[in-house]
Structures are given as structure tokens and as C-alpha cells.
From TrEMBL:
Residues 14-246 form the ABC transporter domain. The keyword Ion transport applies. It comes from the Bacteria. The keyword Kinase does not apply. One of its GO terms (biological process) is quaternary ammonium group transport. One of its GO terms (cellular component) is ATP-binding cassette (ABC) transporter complex. Pfam families: ABC_tran, TOBE_2. Keywords: ATP-binding, Cell membrane, Ion transport, Iron, Iron transport, Membrane, Nucleotide-binding, Transport. This is ABC transporter ATP-binding protein. GO terms for molecular function: ABC-type ferric iron transporter activity; ATP binding; ATP hydrolysis activity. InterPro entries: AAA+_ATPase (IPR003593), ABC_SmlMolc_Importer (IPR050093), ABC_transporter-like_ATP-bd (IPR003439), ABC_transporter-like_CS (IPR017871), ABC_transpr_FbpC (IPR015853), Mo/tungstate-bd_C_term_dom (IPR008995), P-loop_NTPase (IPR027417), Transp-assoc_OB_typ2 (IPR013611). It comes from Alkalilimnicola ehrlichii.
């Protein structure tokens, strides 16, 4: 039967098959598909309004489908005309605003979904979870007596309490400051992995996504633009949108002079792969900040524009002689004021290039 998993698919816990969601007449999720293996942490990442939350709500059972289906543990839980209610899906959820009950202690917040257990069992499970999320001893506190990061770990403990196989996280760290976000992302990743829990995370923050996810679906306008590992999204973006959205960098113009060599505004660059375009094809090449290294002796010169200090490194905006701006990541002892003339060495092997829309047409 179509909806039953084949033997090969037993590892698939969740599958979205060409789902479509509308808000009034507006299709905000359009033919979106992906599969999540048991134990994997996946993330939907994309700019505000691209439909991430709508997808998560459809998995949770809060958002009906206009087309397609959602299969959970081999059973169809959503299709047009059928939406199995959230409480029957056996999922845990963690939201952006913690959503802890302010008038309940940490113990009672965690125990909230464990009403089938008696008081002693609830306390035992809550202690176990507080240990896992590294908050042992704080069970008697109220949410306002905890930091934001601690509250979010209580939310995770509460979501994990009934032992769900799948946890959904909606922008779980967005109200925390940037450093804490990344740290908590790594902690949550480790906790979920150690417990063998599968999770779907939604965020617009790529650092959060990179810290937590095994696979990331980059969303644009209700569709997945690329579904891949964080490494591949960064190094092998499928299109210009993904290349722009993931990581930092600037496009510079270039001409393909050999299958693996580009003549660029910063000299000849030889990459580690061959392109299938015709020689002479005009392309745009993405230069990441770590491709641009300082070299005082170099003939390639630039003028320091803006700078952003981030501890061990400084991110410089560098203006080339022809006015093109690129980014360079220098060790932080190379501290130059704006206006300084610096020499550059381009150390790029992974060349990400896209034919220029108005350039010679080519087939990648
Ligand atoms: N209840 C609703 N009624 C009408 N339109 C809605 C509703 N909820 C969301 N939308 C619209 O659907 C689109 C997708 O919204 P969604 O919340 O899924 O995006 P998102 O990617 O999660 O954005 P954000 O990162 O800002 O939360 C947006 O254009 C939004 O305005």
C-alpha cells in the first residue's frame, strides 16, 4: 500500500509528501517534501515569512493541509480533510517564548504532561530530566527565578518528559543573546542526540541551525531551495539564493578561461573542480571571508572599509581598486584602521560560481 513504509523506509520517522498550506487564498507552503530519519535533527531555515512556522504547525497538527500528506511512524496523520489532532500525535514542542507556566515550579512544569504517573514517579522523572539538562537541584524554583537559557532548558525537559520520539522546536533561542543561542544550540543538540530523540527545528538564524542540525532545508517562498548538510550548504550551495543566505561573502565578476580556472577581478583563481560551461562564460564567483587572506607583499591591494572585531579575528570590508567590495577575515592582531592599504592573497579552492543572467548562456 502506498502509505505503508517499505522495509527500507523503517528508519523514516516523519515524511512530508508534497504538502501545500494556504492562508485564505494565499499558498504559503507549495509542494514541499522531506523525510526525517529516526534520531536525526533537521532544521528548516529561511527568511521571515517563507513558511517555516506553517510547516512546523502542520507537522504538529495545528495547520490543515490543502494538498499532499504527512506520514508519521508510517501512518498518514494529515491530508486534505484529515488532521489528526496534536494531542494524538505524541510529539513534544518547544517554543520561542519558553511557554512555561509562571505560577508552577520547575518540577510542576516538567511534570505537567505526566499526569498518568503518581506524584513520586513524576518527581523521579523530573529529577532525571533536570540531570539531563544540567539543572539538577533547581526543581523548586519558579520560572522567573531562572535565566532565559535555563528556562529554555526546562522547556526542553518538559517536552522530553513523556518520552516523545519527535520534538518540534520553533525558534527556541530567538529571545536569547547571540552567544548564548549558539551555546544552548550545541547543548540541546547533545541532549537530543544522547536521548535518541528526533527533532525538527525552525529558525531564521543560521548559527542556530548550524549548531543543532544534521540536515538543513533552506526555504524560500514556501519551497525548499536546498536540503543538505550544513557543510554542503556552505561549500556547495545549489543556487544564488542559498549562497547569499548561508554564510558571509560577496560575489565578484569573472570569466571562465579553462574548465577549472576563472579570470576574476582579483586575478586568476584555479578551483578544485571543472565547470561544464563554455570558455568565455561570464560568471559571478562567491568569495567567502576566509578565502581572502592578508599578504603584505602582494600586488593585489585593497583599502580597509568597515571592520568588525570578533575576538580571534577581524572581519574587514575591503575595497578593490575598481570599487568592488569583498570581505576578508584576518587574525585579530592585524588591526588596521579604515582607509589602510593592505595586500591580499586569495586562497579559494571551493569556487562557487553561477553564470551571470546577462552573460553568455552556459549549462552547468
Ligand atoms: N493565520 C494566518 N493568516 C494569514 N496569513 C498568515 C497566517 N499565518 C501566517 N501567514 C502568512 O503566511 C506566510 C508564512 O508565514 P510563516 O509564519 O509560516 O513564516 P515564517 O517563515 O515562519 O516566518 P517568521 O520567521 O517571520 O516566523 C507569511 O506571509 C504570513 O504572513
Amino acid at each position: 500500500m502506498e502509505n505503508k513504509p517499505s522495509n527500507n523506509d523503517e528508519e523514516i520517522l516523519l515524511e512530508l509528501r508534497r504538502i501545500e498550506c494556504r492562508h485564505e487564498d494565499n499558498a504559503v507552503v507549495k509542494g514541499l517534501s522531506f523525510r526525517v530519519r529516526r534520531g536525526n535533527l533537521v532544521c528548516l531555515l529561511g527568511p521571515s515569512g517563507c513558511g517555516k512556522t506553517t510547516v512546523l504547525r502542520s507537522i504538529a497538527g495545528f495547520q490543515p493541509l490543502n494538498a499532499g500528506e504527512i506520514v508519521l511512524r508510517g501512518e498518514v496523520v494529515s491530508r486534505p480533510g484529515l488532521t489528526v489532532p496534536p494531542e494524538q500525535r505524541g510529539l513534544g514542542m518547544v517554543f520561542q517564548d519558553y511557554a512555561l507556566f509562571p505560577h508552577l515550579t520547575v518540577y510542576d512544569n516538567i511534570g505537567f504532561g505526566l499526569r498518568k504517573l503518581d506524584k513520586a514517579q513524576r518527581r523521579h522523572r523530573a529529577d532525571e530530566l533536570l540531570e539531563i539538562v544540567d539543572l539538577a537541584g533547581l526543581g523548586a524554583r519558579y520560572p522567573h527565578e531562572l535565566s532565559g537559557g535555563q528556562q529554555q532548558r526546562v522547556s526542553l525537559a518538559r517536552a522530553m518528559a513523556p518520552r516523545p520520539e519527535l520534538i518540534l522546536l520553533d525558534e527556541p533561542f530567538s529571545s536569547l543573546d547571540v552567544d548564548l543561542r549558539e551555546r544552548l544550540g550545541v547543548q540541546m543538540h547533545d541532549i537530543l542526540k544522547s536521548q535518541g530523540i528526533t527533532a525538527v527545528l525552525v529558525t531564521h538564524d543560521q548559527r542556530e541551525a548550524f549548531a543543532m542540525a544534521d540536515q538543513i532545508g533552506v526555504m524560500r517562498n514556501g519551497r525548499v531551495a536546498q536540503w543538505d548538510t550544513p557543510y554542503n550548504l556552505y561549500h556547495e550551495p545549489a543556487d544564488r539564493f542559498v549562497a547569499d543566505f548561508i554564510g558571509q561573502g560577496r560575489f565578484i565578476s569573472a570569466t571562465l578561461v579553462a574548465p577549472d580556472t576563472l579570470k576574476t577581478e582579483v586575478g586568476l583563481i584555479k578551483g578544485d573542480r571543472a565547470y561544464g560551461w563554455e570558455p568565455g562564460t561570464e560568471v559571478d564567483v562567491l568569495l567567502r571571508p576566509d578565502d581572502v587572506q592578508p599578504d603584505p607583499e602582494s600586488e593585489l591591494r585593497a583599502t580597509v572599509g568597515k571592520k568588525a572585531f570578533n575576538g580571534p579575528q577581524i572581519l574587514y570590508t575591503l575595497r578593490l581598486a575598481n570599487g568592488t567590495e569583498i570581505l576578508g577575515l584576518f587574525p585579530s592582531h592585524m588591526d588596521y584602521p579604515p582607509g589602510t592599504d593592505v595586500g591580499l592573497f586569495i586562497d579559494a579552492q571551493h569556487l562557487i560560481a553561477f553564470p551571470r543572467p546577462d552573460g553568455t548562456p552556459g549549462t552547468p
